[in-house]
Amino acid sequence: MSSDGSSDNIERYSFDVVVIGAGGSGLRAAIEARARGKKTAIISKSLFGKAHTVMAEGGAAAAMGNANPRDNWQVHFRDTMRGGKFLNNPRMAELHAKEAPDRVWELEAWGALFDRTAEGKISQRNFGGHEYPRLAHVGDRTGLEMIRTLQQRVVALQQQDAASLGDPDAMIRVFAETTITRLVKDSSGRIAGAFGYIRDTGRFVVFEAPAVVLATGGIGRTFKVTSNSWEYSGDGHALALLAGASLLNMEFVQFHPTGMIWPPSVRGILVTESVRGDGGVLRNSEGKRFMFDYVPDVFRDQYAETEEEADRWYTDPDNNRRPPELLPRDEVARSINSEIKAGRSSPHGGVFLDVSSRLPAEEIMRRLPSMHHQFKELADVDITAEPMEIGPTCHYVMGGVEVDPDTGASSVPGLFAAGEVSGGMHGSNRLGGNSLSDLLVFGKRAGDGAADYVDSVSASRPAADEAELTDALAEAIAPLSRTDGENPYTVHAELQQTMNDLVGLIRRAPEVKQALTELEKFKERAAHVAVAGGRAYNPGWHYALDLRNMLLVAECVALAALEREESRGGHTRDDFPAMSPEWRKVNLVLSLSGEKLELRRKPLPPIRPDLLALFERSELKKYMTDEELADLPASEPAGPASESASESESGSASESESKEKGH
Amino acid sequence: MGYKAKFRVWRGDAGTGALQDYEVEVNEGEVVLDVLHRLQATQANDLALRWNCKAGKCGSCSMEINGRPRLGCMTRMSVFSPSETLTITPMRTFPVIRDLVTDVSFNYEKARQIPSFTPDASVKPGEFRMMQQDVNRSQEFRKCIECYLCQNTCHVIRDHAENEAAFAGPRFLMRVAELEMHPADTADRRDIAQEDFGLGYCNITKCCTEVCPEHIKITDNALIPMKERVAGRKYDPLVWLGSKISRRPKSEGTPVAVRPAAKDAT
Ligand SMILES: Cc1cc2nc3c(=O)[nH]c(=O)nc-3n(C[C@H](O)[C@H](O)[C@H](O)COP(=O)(O)OP(=O)(O)OC[C@H]3O[C@@H](n4cnc5c(N)ncnc54)[C@H](O)[C@@H]3O)c2cc1C
Ligand code: SF4
Ligand code: SF4
Ligand code: FES
Which residue of B11, B24, B58 to mutate against A (max A Cβ within 10 Å)? Predict the structure, then answer.
């Protein structure tokens, strides 16, 4: 096979909607587009059914009220906004909370088998930041259940199409192990398709389509210690930028508090939050449950102050406050970091997470089977008998493509995004379980949005600009034609180390600036990497092409992290440790101008009055500026939603006395 | 405690290939996949292998290690002695694409032939009521990560490509059993299990169960109970005798089977 650079050698397909990504959001989007009668392609870098969603453990958050009938969308909305420190796109948080139950039930109608309550409903478990048990789950392999169900739903639709149209691929076709490297547009700047290569042969391919849905997941591979797989090189983020769309809030990167730390080869692998939801506690080297020392003021009223109260909560949540181990992830990760820094770490430099002294062995085996398996096989630790050693790991990116909440549309006509690659929904910090539900809610909406858009352009379908295709092809071939460049693996490993060290969990201006300088050098090196071998299934080549995306994303994270001079959620500045109400009003938006990234400040969309009314004024005071508070309606909230609000926060009367955090 | 391990890795493509010798550094706590990654990063940049999660959850990194079908990410180096040479080869049952990567499209084709979940159409989403004890069995089968190690191991198709058309393999016979035992599924899949997916070929050797990284009791909990259900259905002695003799009953008259034209998965 020659590396022929002419665009005649490109395989061509034509679809109405091309979905890039076969995780939860991509599959849900594709199912919707197909339901709307659109000819749809699903493209994924790995095999069908292996996307990152498969790794999700804990569950999908949806206020079905099966475990506690007091749960409803308003409570879920409130929890989501609190978790995101009020920087969430409020419309997205609203749609998510309202629609998640229907999306989960729909999975059940497609064959999913969730764990059950005693009445035979879907069981729901506790998770950090969720007021009631809310996560629909299957043991600790919920993501697997979700992806398999969606995969099997796609198959079911293909069977219907085989029966009625004679071809299973007639309306929805899967292109596995195919990587998109560029989006292509028409002469007027509308999306016209996507260009990439097929991994096993190295053949180039273009999918011509008026609508493209990005569902490519996250960016974790940019960091050294991460729970994410090789797929998470930020491709969708980079593709969006390169196509002219903008990214939102890239400084917010979630470091999950509990990743494995020992042995070194498993460092970063996730330990599910369900361990804490089901009773697991965090201890330092002195055996102390240190989280009681780290409850921030904004959450003071919702979390227990003593071990006794915290322990009572598991059986009597209505009359006790939650254990502080279940604070939102950013809080727990920072607390662990402080304990380690203060010299109270476990032997391998983390802290202890213990469930063995909290639940009987058989209960642990039933509720956390894959955690038991993972520790046994990979670390020789029996979690039913001894504590685990854990530490923070890069897990999720809250930032992503700036989209219209209702349709998932980006600013580029025909380009949509859903799932982890999109931004706004989770604000500065995502609550556990809110991603799987996000994938379903916004996957469906993006599929719908794309279908509507296709209808609107049916009279003038965009045609791919041939010059763009030629450029895309030249770019993809380049690393193979260099002979004396550097090894892409080395560049990648050093990039990961740099990001981990300089733009990690705790950030400081001089370090972030240094990272930006380093990134310039990495760009130079990446432009000259060379790979041996041909185009057929050549991981060296794939790595070389992924570098462009990782570098672009890394620069976005660093630029936004330097700009935001406050600490909030997944962005902690050592030099600006407080949360600032002024900064809460600001979204940081990044876009490409030529080769250069541009950063803009943009006001956060306002929270609608009826949504604001779901919160007590005393709580809003902790997040908002005096001017914003002055604009609030003076009356106390009314209606059924606020009833449950005041019920569940019986401590809120004393909130006004708790100290405000300064700027 | 680092040491240099001797690895013999199969390199090649559909046409030709050979085992190639390497020496690679190994550190404490590492799994075979870590060592292959180091090999890839330092000595063989173009070594083709699949992986995603590195935690035994995605079923991508299936390979044969010293002839044993295993997940590379769940096989610790500490189970081998430092002096041992590890031979790493691709799954044998599937055609090689390159190095350790095989063409597993057979499995996707079989998956597409099994009639899908068929709930009672009058039950609305949100109204399903199922008891934990009734979903336990199918949940066990749904732990499957589709690593295809069982498919690779089963002697009915290992080295017997001629049986592939008539036999879906343990993973997909288990899928039929999963739907058969799903409390909300209404279809009867007993005939097609036998006639379209080749349940009769299985002679319950349990080799599939032995290699399953999820420790699913494929043979005991899915295949044997399925055979019992089929036998119950087929108790008409004549039918029973017929299927005994011909071993491969004709697939005529099985109206519920879904037979989409099998296409190459790209
Ligand atoms: C270990 C772990 C546990 C988690 N547990 C939970 C949990 O319990 N609850 C929860 O809510 N969330 C959890 N999360 C987060 C959640 O799993 C992810 O955020 C979510 O699955 C992302 O789904 P997605 O649809 O956006 O993309 P993914 O499932 O990541 O899929 C991305 C898809 O895009 C494809 N792709 C990427 N780039 C390209 C390209 N260039 N060309 C073609 N295809 C491409 C990939 O191949 C893949 O198919 C967890 C995450 C991890 C890592
Ligand atoms: S038990 Fe049946 S399916 Fe499993 S390996 Fe033996 S013959 Fe194959
Ligand atoms: S049943 Fe077990 S061995 Fe077979 S594909 Fe599933 S997980 Fe792999
Ligand atoms: S890499 Fe996922 S199972 Fe091995």
Answer: B58
How many Cβ atoms sit within 10 Å of the Cβ of residue A7?
20
- Identify whether residues A183 and A263 lie together within a single domain: no
- Domain identity same for B116 and B240: yes
Chain B, 137-176: which have a CB under 8 Å from a chain A CB? 138-139, 142-146
Across the A/B interface, how many CB contacts are shorter than 8 Å? 202
Q: Which residue has the higher pLDDT, B253 or A7?
A: A7
> pLDDT by residue (tens digit) across A525-578?
999 999 989 999 999 999 999 999 999 999 999 999 999 999 999 999 999 999
The answer to whether B191 and B235 have CB atoms below 8 angstroms apart is no
Q: Is the pLDDT of residue A651 over 70?
A: no
Instruction: Check: pTM over 0.90? Answer yes or no.
Output: yes
ipTM value, please give it.
0.89
Q: Residue B71 phi/psi, 5° resolution?
A: -85, 130
User: Are A279 and A125 spatial neighbours (Cβ–Cβ below 8 Å)?
Assistant: no
Buried b (16+ CB within 10 A) or exposed e, A473-503: beebbbbbeeeebebbbebbeebbebbbebb
The residue whose C-alpha atom lies closest to atom 2 belonging to ligand 2 is: B202
Read off the CATH number of the domain in which B21 is found.
3.10.20.30
Cα gap A291→A325, rounded to integer Å? 6
The active-site residue out of A76, A125, A130, A256 is A256
Mark whether A16 and A118 lie in a shared domain. Answer: yes
User: Domain range holding B82?
Assistant: 3-102
Distances, alpha carbon A631 to alpha carbons A586, A603, A635, in Å: 18, 16, 12
How much is the average pLDDT of A643-656?
36
Instruction: Confirm if A643 and A612 have CB atoms less than 8 A apart.
Output: no
For A456-465, the pLDDT digits (tens) are 999 999 999 9
Instruction: Kindly state whether residues B139 and B86 are assigned to the same domain.
Output: no
Nearest to A159 among B34, B116, B142 (CB): B116
Q: Could you give the 3-state DSSP secondary structure of residue B263?
A: coil
Per-residue pLDDT reduced to its tens digit, A591-633: 999 999 999 999 999 999 999 999 999 999 999 999 999 988 7
